[in-house]
Specification:
The structure is a single chain. The protein is α+β, with helices and mostly antiparallel strands. Helices cover 35% and strands 24% of the residues. The protein is built from three helices and four strands. It is globular and about 45 Å long. 20% of the residues are buried.
């Protein structure tokens, strides 16, 4: 009997954070407030956190966060939504004092 396998995600938002000036304060806010907010992104399929990744080229970030959506339109809609604006405001207000961060939106193409 065939199983319905969901199509793989076609869009990903990746955020990298530098080492926080106060790791404990950063982690407390990130885990207690920011991640629960991020889980509310409309259409979010998966959210993963990778602390202290192993460097291959260049200096490693402290934290890499990956979030997947079905397609770029869904990702863009989520970032522009009310909750998306709340998440961005929270990062700017409550995480930026502790760590630098950057984000990229990726269209995922099979090679």
């Amino acid at each position: 009997m065939p199983t319905d396998t969901p199509a793989p995600p076609q869009a990903r938002f990746v955020v990298t954070y530098g080492t926080p000036s106060d790791v404990e304060a950063f982690e407390r806010h990130y885990q207690d407030v920011h991640v629960p907010l991020a889980r509310q992104y409309p259409g979010l399929r998966r959210l993963t956190l990778s602390h202290e990744p192993t460097p291959v080229i260049g200096e490693p970030p402290y934290l890499v966060v990956s979030m997947d959506w079905d397609d770029m339109a869904s990702l863009e809609a989520a970032l522009g939504s009310e909750i998306g604006r709340r998440i961005a405001d929270d990062a700017a207000t409550n995480l930026a004092p502790y760590a630098t961060f950057s984000g990229v939106a990726l269209r995922l193409d099979d090679a």
